[in-house]
Amino acid sequence: MKKIAMSLMLASLVLVSCKDDKKKLDSEEATDTEVVEEVEEVEEMEVKKVTMTLASKSGSSATGTVTFTEQEGVVAMEATLSGLTPGTHAIHIHEKADCTAEDGTSSGGHWNPTFAPHGKWGAEEGFHKGDIGNVEADENGNASIAMKTDEWCIGCGDENKDILGKAIIVHQGTDDYTTQPTGAAGARVSCGGIIE
To answer: Which of 16-20, 48-52, 71-75, 81-85 is least confident?
Structure first.
């Protein structure tokens, strides 16, 4: 009789232990599921994108397309240009998305919200937030440029970073990265507003 009672006690302990283990496993699975759901949410981060067309200015035939894409706090710019004279041309972001003037001057000066000196992008001496740099047009007048930066944002509202409401200007000549405040890049041959 004692053996039967002992066997029953052992069996009930095993059952209780199994139930506790099952609860523990169910709890761990629920936690793992929650972690997976959190990871999936992180992977679905917002991507912002603005594509614009550049129009010819100052009697030129220069045109182009520029795309800005922002993801995880970094803005990528890709520009494809055509109709340029062969050689080096400056490309900048200017203050206003206004390309109504025939010579592109309605776009204002270089975008420079931090009041830095004009210079080459990334220079220790300083540079405008709109100082993209130079692009090389081939013998057919085609050129392209690509860059990435966390110095810009698309529609974030930070006046020191937000490129919406500004313009892309392609110049007739080369940015010398020295002459203040424009780099002596010459006439504005193409203009496009950065607008959604």
So the answer is: 16-20
CA 27 to each of CA 34, 39, 97, 129: distance values in angstroms, whole numbers, following the listed order? 11, 19, 56, 51
Shared domain for 82 and 168, answered yes or no, is: yes
Which tens digits make up the pLDDT trace of 44-79? 678 999 999 999 999 999 999 999 999 999 999 999
pLDDT for res 45: 73
- E strands present in the chain: 47-56, 63-71, 74-82, 87-94, 133-137, 143-149, 167-171, 188-193
- How many C-beta atoms surround the C-beta of residue 186 within 10 A? 15
DSSP-derived 3-state class of residue 186 = coil
How long, in residues, is the chain?
196
DSSP letter (8 states) at residue 85? P
* Residue written as token pair 């029953």: 8
- Write down the pTM of the prediction: 0.76
User: Does 107 share its domain with 166?
Assistant: yes
Among candidate residues 193, 194, 189, the one with its CA nearest the CA of residue 87: 189
- Mapped onto helix, strand or coil, the DSSP state of residue 33 is helix
Encoded amino acid at 73, one letter = G
Show the domain range for 93. Answer: 47-193
